Amino acid sequence: MVGGRGKCRLGVLVSGRGSNLQALIDACADPGFPATIAAVVSNRPDAGGLARAQAAGIATSVVDHKLYATREAFEAHLHAALEEAGVDLLCAAGFMRVLTASFIARWEGRFLNVHPSLLPSFPGLHPQQQALDAGVKVSGCTVHFVTAEVDAGPIVAQVAVPVLEGDTADTLAARILNSEHRLYPRAVRLVAEGRVRIEGARAHVDERP
Ligand code: GRF
Question: Is this structure's pTM higher than 0.85?
Answer without folding.
Answer: yes
